Structure to design on (704 residues):
DNA sequence: CTGTTAGCGCTTTCAG
DNA sequence: CTGAAAGCGCTAACAG
């Protein structure tokens, strides 16, 4: 049974046999150890080439106790360009470290998130970057005792300690609302996620704070909640527009809501200023003015990867270091309306 | 040295010791083998719970020779919504099979693609889904002798045999061009990728075939090439519009070109019909008519994952089966222009 | 139904 | 500088 091997997958022993050295010498050459004679190094390299040998990373990981060079990424919806950009940033940061990303899409299902965490831990990932789907991550405490470090993205950890990377939700909403106020708006509606969602409540807080600072009132019926889909946002915007005194501007807490609101305006043939989180392509060619809050999702991913790298095996951060938190800044971009006589520029940027 | 273990990572032996059975019995229980007595099963399950034991998938993979339950995905640009949707479809198809996706972004660099293939093979992925960056994949033959099966997406394999999933590039371009002809256009310009890119040449072929069938001439200067970025597309479109007899419609082979062409029209205050591959959000609210070719990128990913599943360990396809090819159909969607008096519908679909 | 033995492919450890 | 022995955590193969 000694010779019953697949021809295409040689092992280190076969390389050793061909090179007439021990497996250890081959192992040393493969890892670039300096303690190998020039002669042996060449013999081994030749044998590797002849056999088309490729080291088995799984076997290596097993022996090296958990050094798998893999990182888990759990997102709620890869179809959202925001998460795609996040994944891109993470991959770009980790690949040069020789680490690979294992991708999981939860479709917003907390149970699926929990399963994924368990499975990734089983696969010995060295760390996990998590965009949480549910309200709490307390389960991580029992799921990962002594397991891989976790970095959370987009909302702070709840029920557990972990590093995290956040967007300046409050500041961005505050700045965008200020831009609307500066443009002379006094009747400003709000279209957003339910307050149970972290980003939704933070952005609502920023919105309210700006209004309050300006002494501008916010009638109860100017506040509408919608889900993350166009239809629900359109319906909510319709309600705003149907008010006896409709708002002259609407602030939306996410991309879907912004575009839904625009469609409602267009269908009702109303001109009002649209404002919201997340820039989008063609925002500058719409028939109403658009003011958006934007930020660099790829950079968010890079930050998350760097935080994680610090916690992983070989990282620079002491495990006793307190949870770290990075807040990524936002920028307000004002797009002129298509038929407007205003500035013709594609976008006017202002620091948040 | 027997007890020098990290408390948080128990092994199967510790579970066995606690349950007072052998490691094999634990292993059997974990995998749901029916040949375990009820008593022992309960003892083991209790011990697992007490210790918080989680099987080590790396050790399992090593023993089970390559059954890692991982698949490699190599794309050129995750930031492109098309690839994000592709990844989503692949993940959705593989996750229920207990397989995880290892993601790699090549940024269009063939050398990076080759490195990624080697690394993924080293990590013992059971298969690879590849959106090729370079003109040939001949290197796979020497890189993967007896290695994991590969499925290509978006363009057919070159220099090697492999299953692949393609978009009906020819048919889509043909149908879209026919739609322009049916709308009465006789001066139709072409804005596309260099013909060295598979999709570019196929779409050009479809475009030409439709014109030829209709007996409509295609002047040389009606054909312009652009890269996959807005600036280059805008410049190329400018040239088309600057012709003595400019086209009344422009067919573009990709999303970036379509939007670039639209920006050129808008800047030059010209009304012409825009047509192109890939639908995009807000296409229906532009100031000119837009006719796009669309297809389901997520479904493309699902098809790719299914083809791969057939070739992987435990798959249903004999390895001697000839390379399979799936062509995903396209749909032509006509969006009415914003100020037009035509149909008010969001989009008129027609089978390609 | 259960356990023992052996070994996946590699690297740590220690002895030359 | 080199190699032999042992074993990472798990499971196939066999024997009871």
């Amino acid at each position: 049974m000694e010779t019953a091997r697949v021809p295409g997958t040689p092992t280190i022993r076969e390389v050793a046999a061909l090179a007439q050295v021990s497996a250890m010498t081959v192992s040393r050459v493969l890892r670039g150890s300096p303690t190998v004679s020039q002669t042996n190094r060449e013999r081994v390299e030749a044998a590797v080439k002849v056999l088309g040998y490729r080291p088995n990373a799984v076997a290596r990981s097993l022996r090296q106790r958990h050094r798998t060079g893999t990182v888990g990424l759990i997102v709620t919806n890869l179809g959202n360009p925001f998460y795609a950009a996040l994944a891109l940033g993470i991959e770009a940061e980790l690949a040069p470290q020789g680490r690979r990303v294992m991708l999981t899409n939860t479709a917003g299902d907390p149970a699926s998130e929990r399963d994924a965490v368990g499975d990734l831990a089983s696969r010995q990932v060295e760390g996990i970057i998590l965009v949480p789907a549910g309200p709490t991550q307390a389960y991580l405490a029992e799921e990962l005792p002594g397991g891989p470090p976790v970095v959370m993205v987009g909302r702070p950890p709840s029920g557990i300690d972990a590093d995290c990377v956040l967007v300046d939700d409050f500041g961005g909403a505050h700045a965008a609302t200020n831009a609307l106020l500066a443009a002379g708006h006094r009747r400003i509606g709000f279209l957003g996620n339910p307050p149970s969602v972290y980003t939704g409540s933070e952005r609502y807080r920023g919105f309210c704070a700006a209004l309050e600072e300006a002494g501008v009132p916010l009638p109860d019926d100017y506040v509408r909640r919608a889900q993350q889909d166009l239809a629900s946002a359109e319906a909510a915007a319709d309600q705003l527009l149907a008010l006896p005194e409709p708002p002259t501007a609407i602030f939306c807490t996410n991309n879907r809501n912004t575009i839904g609101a625009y469609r409602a305006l267009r269908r009702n043939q109303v001109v009002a200023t649209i404002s919201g989180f997340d820039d989008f392509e063609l925002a500058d060619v719409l028939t109403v003015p658009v003011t958006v809050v934007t930020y660099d999702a790829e950079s968010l991913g890079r930050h998350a990867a760097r935080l994680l790298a610090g916690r992983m095996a070989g990282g620079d951060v002491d495990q006793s270091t307190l949870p770290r938190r990075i807040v990524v800044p936002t920028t307000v971009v004002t797009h002129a309306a298509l038929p407007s006589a205003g500035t013709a520029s594609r976008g006017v940027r202002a620091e948040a």
Q: What stands out?
A: Confidence is low (pLDDT under 50) at residues 1-6, 339-352 of chain B. The longest helix of chain B spans residues 198-213. The first strand of chain B starts at residue 70 and ends at 75.
